[in-house]
Amino acid sequence: MKIKIIACSLKGYELGQKIAEKYSCTVDSGSKKASEKLNISFVNHYEWAKENFDKCDAMIFIGAVGIAVRSVGKLLKSKLTDPAVICIDDCGKFTIPILSGHVGGANKLALEISEFINSTPVVTTATDINNVFAIDSWAVEQGLQIIRPYKIKEVSAKILHGENIVIKTEVPIIGQVPNGVKVVSFTENCDFDVIITSNADEKSESLLLLWDKTTDKISF
């Protein structure tokens, strides 16, 4: 994973260096005063975000959430392609995934970082805080390509409201089926919320997860 870090204070830069050592990356300074004191280059956080948004897997802002939000706001394209964005206060008290929590891996990375620096993770995605199955995170873990991503919200909403979702699949799924999930075979004639197939031209209106036939099974 390619990670970029920017710190907006001297204290934040020191924290950033600790994180950078763990992930074998570097820290940029978004603070003029810190840059002068440390004799390092200063970078404007807007320009930094624009330069790195499409070139990295995760962006970490050490400073205020507002700075992170304003820096990436105009760059957002899709939950399937935007990098993970995480904000950490410069005292290292809170680690907050603010963008691409599931598909981009921000939630997972934030939890990992929070354990490393002994901070409190602030995860706000509903499926995570309610400890229910997240179809998008699972799809990424299984190497499935998400088509019709706008359907993710509908699928998650059903589970969050205590309803079962039906996954119709062309490939065998092994493991314990999560609560709120029903798996049916590809040949079964029934309504379904998610379909897993190798056919990119599948015509239903359900969430489509494309399966690569080089994988003979997937798992929960």
Walk me through the structure.
The chain is α/β, with parallel strands linked by helices and about 220 residues long. It contains eight helices and 13 strands. It is about 30% helix and about 25% strand. Helix 3 (about 45-50) crosses helix 4 (about 65-70).
Entry summary:
The chain is an alpha/beta fold. It has helices at 10-23, 32-38, 45-52, 65-72, 106-117, 126-129, 135-141, 152-160, and strands spanning 3-7, 27-29, 58-62, 84-88, 94-99, 120-121, 145-147, 165-169, 173-174, 181-185, 194-197, 207-210, 218-219.
Keyword list:
220 residues, alpha/beta, six-stranded mixed sheet, five-stranded mixed sheet, 8 helices, 31% helix, elongated
The percentage helix is 25-40%
> Secondary-structure element order, as H and E?
EHEHHEHEEHEHHEHEEEEEE
The separation of the N and C termini measures: 23 Å
Largest sheet, in brief, is: 6 strands, mixed
Query: Structural class from helices and strands?
Result: alpha/beta
* Largest sheet: spatial strand order: 2-1-3-4-5-6
**Can you give the mean pLDDT?**
96
Which regions have little confidence, pLDDT < 50, spanning 5+ residues? none
Number of strands: 13
Report the principal-axis shape. Answer: elongated
List the total number of helices: 8
Please report which band the strand proportion falls in: under 5%, 5-15%, 15-25%, 25-35%, 35-45% or over 45%.
15-25%
The Rg value, from CA coordinates, equals: 20 Å
Describe the protein's topology.
Layout: E1 3-7, H1 10-23, E2 27-29, H2 32-38, H3 45-52, E3 58-62, H4 65-72, E4 84-88, E5 94-99, H5 106-117, E6 120-121, H6 126-129, H7 135-141, E7 145-147, H8 152-160, E8 165-169, E9 173-174, E10 181-185, E11 194-197, E12 207-210, E13 218-219
Parallel strand pairs: 1-2, 1-3, 3-4, 5-6, 8-10, 8-11, 9-13, 11-12
Antiparallel strand pairs: 4-5, 7-12
Helix pairs in contact: 3-4
